[in-house]
Amino acid sequence: MIDNLGDSSQLVIHPADELSAALGHSHLALEHLFLGLVGLEDLQLQRVFMAAGVDVGAVALDMLKGWAAEERCALDRRFLPRQPSGR
């Protein structure tokens, strides 16, 4: 079913699915999709979050720390959003 989605959807869903699998989750939740979205390093998207007063890096880190504590697993930093390159 995921393969039937458009290219831009795939850019969000594949990292979200990878994160879900890395955490041992058998589902794809809103939290996974959020991290897949912010992982796109999209400058416009980052500006929208910043304008709303949201520090996506801090939110993502809190989410991953929570999962790491719940699942008793290591914090996987590759799922933290990186700063956009300014494209």
Q: What's the multimeric state?
A: single chain
Anisotropy-based shape: flat
Average residue-wise pLDDT: 79
Q: Distance between termini?
A: 31 Å
Biggest sheet layout: none
Number of DSSP E strands: 0
Number of domains: 1
In terms of structural class, how would the helical and strand content be classed? mainly alpha
Contiguous helical run count: 4
Topology of helices and strands:
Layout: H1 7-22, H2 30-38, H3 43-51, H4 56-71
Helix pairs in contact: 1-2
List the defining traits of the structure above.
single chain; flat; mainly alpha; 87 residues; 4 helices
Quick take:
The chain is an all-alpha fold and 87 residues long. The protein is 57% helix and 0% strand.
Characterization of the model:
Helix content is 57%, strand content 0%. It has 87 residues and is an all-alpha fold. The chain has one domain (2-79). The chain contains four helices and no strands. The chain starts with 6 loop residues before the first helix and ends in a 16-residue tail after the last helix.
